[in-house]
Amino acid sequence: MIKALAKCIRDAKVPAILTPIFMLAEAFTEVCIPTVMKYMIDFGINQGDINNVVKYGVMLLAFTLASMMFGVTAGVTASRASSRFAKNLRQDMYYNIQRFTFSSIDKFSPASLVTRLTTDVNRVQMAFQMIIRITFRAPAMLIFAFIFSFRTSPKLSTVFLFAIPFLVIVLAIIIKVAFPIFNKTFKTYDDLNECVEENVRGIRVVKSFVQEEHEKSKFGKISDKIFELFTKAEKTVAFNAPAMQIAVYACVIAISWLGAHAIVESGNAEPGLTVGGLTSLFTYTMQILMSLMMLSMIFVMLTMSKASADRTAEVLREGCDINDGERNIKELKDGSVEFKNVCFKYSETAENNALDHISVKINSGETIGIIGGTGSSKSTFVQMIPRLYDTTEGEVFVGGENVRDYNLEALRNNVAMVLQKNTLFSGTIYDNIRWGNENASDEDVQRVCKLACADEFIQKFPDKYNTHIEQGGTNVSGGQKQRLCIARALLKHPKILILDDSTSAVDTHTDALIRKAFREEIPNTTKIIIAQRVSSICDADKIIVLENGKISDMGTHEELYNRGGIYREIYDQQTKGANDDE
Predict the structure, then answer these.
(1) Class of residue 463 by CB neighbours under 10 A (exposed 0-12, middle 13-18, buried 19+)
(2) Among 306, 458, 463, 472, which residue has the fewest nearby CB atoms (within 10 Å)?
(3) pLDDT tens-digit series, residues 507-540
(4) 131-134 contacts at long range (C-beta below 8 A, 24 or more positions apart)
């Protein structure tokens, strides 16, 4: 964890190093102040020597100003260091998330990643600032104050040796009890964010089914759980302050009692102890015990932050298990695809394969239809082609080469995929389509939109192609969103085009026009179409029927229909009651 987070310090190194130096200087100058006060009382005030009063008064002012200057400077450098560290941490986490494979994304929910990038990073930033400031200041103050107090009165200073074990025991108990609760609390934050995200994304469904009260109740339960956990943890941590106060007042009383007797009883019980010395001991008592209080606060803070640090480091450590191949091939010869005895499972602990011994060959330029029931691994099948997942067993070849040998960017630039879940980003229609090719001209964008039958509805917008699309495409319909996503994929001029149920929200007439455009305009592009409607794939060169991750049948529409089986059953169910024209 520490190694992963330490890499994010980078440009924060200089202020991070300067801060402890300034904190040590501040601690030393602050500890010198009680000694100067002792001399001013003993050699100035008590003896009525105004020169010594002025002399030590000036020294007192100098040490005070120096302590303040070192403290302010340390505060500035600590703020810079922690801010830069947090910036680097968020940046590294975000950049690493961009490198995540689909298998990595499966491990972290969006709500969890949002929590880690915000709440957890804030806690780590606060902990880092405390580490470079208080973690150095408190021990230094403790050590310096001990040295000066023992110089003043070794006998009275032994009082501290009884207070420290008491505080250490209390702190250990607090940490042991509070840490598991804080850890559980931060995990519950993920549930809270997930609840909010799910509600916002599905707000139309919530309102349509009048489930607002249900969603409020669900949010309230999670919110109450966080409240209960935090209250329970904070109650435990709250024992820290009373324990510190007990130790402070006990030490003050003990030193007052013993010190007063030492001074009053003819000065022989404690040789060298003076009124100024006793006054300085009171200050050292406060400094020592305040240092212990700061150390206890650090331990509590680090206890709270450890869970956040673990969660941020987990994102940073998540490696990319799909990288450029050793041969780093940057050009696809053609759009041919071949699966050789491919097996795949989503996790090592999974009992069954999602894909089970798949072997199939697709020639370049062919149109392939894929159909099957829900959960038959249709999407998983096509995700092997651009290496969104890697096979568990077997090999996948594209353009005659193993996909593991390709440069990832080159492979995915030549394999355009319209995923089952269509996503548009905030910006104009031009901006969204140019995700396929940022250098494309307006004419190129309009051409692919015509191929995808999107130009028809775009021209009806007042701003046409400059129409602003809201985040997630909430201001366009499902069918319009699908057609824009298809156009975006076509702009890449791919050698392989994969449509993962990407025309499900489009009417059958428009669907037919899109397929006709594909046949006429991009005949050399291999087209793999996953569909629930038989009409979307019936004119394909080859149709693959998947069942439970296996190929149950394969052939043309006529061959599959004549053989009967699942395909014929699906076709008859979908065409039942339809007229001859349909």
Answers:
(1) exposed
(2) 463
(3) 888 888 888 888 888 888 899 998 888 888 888 8
(4) 131/298, 131/302, 132/16, 132/19, 132/20, 132/23, 132/78, 132/81, 132/82, 133/19, 133/20, 133/23, 133/74, 133/75, 133/78, 134/294, 134/295, 134/297, 134/298
Cα–Cα distance for residue pair 568/561, rounded to 1 Å: 5
The sign one gets for the Cα dihedral 420, 424, 430, 436 is negative
Q: Which two tokens stand for residue 581?
A: 């024209």
Q: How does 396-430 read in b/e, with b if 16+ C-beta sit within 10 Å? A: bbbbebebbebbbeebbbbbbbbbeebebeeeebb
Tens digit of pLDDT for each residue in 1-59? 778 888 888 888 899 899 999 988 988 898 888 888 888 887 777 777 788 888 888 98
Distance CA 564, CA 559 (A): 9
Is the whole model's pTM more than 0.90, yes or no? no
One-letter amino acid at 5 equals L
Distance, CA of 317 to CA of 536 (rounded, Å): 43
Burial 557-574 (b: 16+ CB within 10 A, else e): beebbeeeebbeebbeee
Helices (H), 8-117: 13-40, 50-98, 102-107, 110-115
Under 8 Å between Cβ of 448 and 490: yes
Q: How far is 138 from 403, CA to CA, in rounded Å?
A: 57
Please provide the DSSP assignment of 152-171 as one string.
Answer: H-HHHHTTHHHHHHHHHHHH
Q: Are 308 and 123 in contact (CB under 8 A)?
A: yes
Contact 380, 354 (CB under 8 A): yes
